[in-house]
Design a protein that fits this description.
The chain is α+β, with helices and mostly antiparallel strands. The protein has one domain: Glucose Permease (Domain IIA) (Distorted Sandwich), CATH 2.70.70.10. The protein contains three helices and twelve strands, in the order E-H-E-E-E-E-E-E-E-E-E-E-E-H-H. An eight-stranded mixed beta sheet has the order 1-2-4-11-8-7-6-9, covered by helices on one side. A two-stranded antiparallel ribbon has the order 3-12. The protein starts with 20 loop residues before the first strand and ends in a 9-residue tail after the last helix.
Length: 226
């Protein structure tokens, strides 16, 4: 797969670069997380957006294959220690609720549903694309519930077309507002849902099946233009 041949449309209608986007760290190395009540979504949200405000940025970004300290906030991830899922398989883009999100590639609606529960995806859309003769799926999680109202399975979507919006909490799975964006080669029978976080013991499989979303997001940390 030659990712460089792709010409994706910007997810938020503008390029993400160091002028408008701050890289965020949710790994155990970030000791400031110890001071945040992650189980309190309002407090967690204030922590995230406080960083963006101080940096003068519209977006926060990070997460692909990041080992994270934030998942103990929800039983969605808290299984036996060996199976505990804490390695992020997508890219998170943190920004204000109700910001519009645009389809990066042309395709069709594969599936959608509201994945309810504290710490889950909330409203979720999966698109199916054909890239160089191969199926590729993209997942959009933590959306507005109303985004699901007008969708139909098989509905065509053009690159650059308005697809959905960043959801507010609690309807977005009770997270600080952000988009979880992820790529998959094979959905493994999943419908409107796919694991967005993996246990370390399963990482090799998921690294193979979930390519780096930055090939689509194309965050340019060296470009400061707004």
């Amino acid at each position: 797969m030659n990712w460089k041949n792709l010409k994706p449309s910007p997810l938020f209608g503008e390029s993400l670069n160091s002028g408008n986007t701050l890289k965020l760290d949710f790994s155990p190395l970030n000791s400031s997380l110890d001071q945040v009540d992650l189980g309190n979504t309002a407090a967690f949200s204030s922590f995230v957006f406080g960083q963006l405000e101080r940096a003068g940025k519209t977006y926060g970004i990070g997460g692909y294959l990041e080992k994270r300290a934030i998942y103990r906030r929800s039983e969605v991830f808290a299984t036996a220690e060996a199976d505990f899922r804490n390695i992020h398989l997508g890219v998170d883009i943190w920004t204000m609720a109700e910001i519009p999100i645009f389809a990066p590639l042309s395709g069709k609606i594969h599936s959608f549903q509201n994945n309810e529960g504290f710490g889950n995806y909330g409203p979720t859309i999966i698109l199916e694309h054909e890239v160089e003769g191969k199926k590729l799926y993209s997942l959009f999680g933590h959306l507005c519930l109303t985004d699901l109202d007008s969708l139909a399975i098989g509905q065509e979507v053009k690159a650059g077309e308005l697809l959905c919006h960043v959801g507010p909490f609690p309807e977005n799975g009770d997270w600080p507002p952000h988009l979880h964006f992820q790529l998959m080669w094979d959905l493994g029978g999943n419908w409107g849902d796919y694991p967005g976080v993996a246990a370390e013991k399963d990482l090799e499989f998921y690294k193979e099946n979930c390519p780096d979303p930055n090939w689509i997001v194309r965050f340019d940390s060296k470009n400061k233009s707004r």
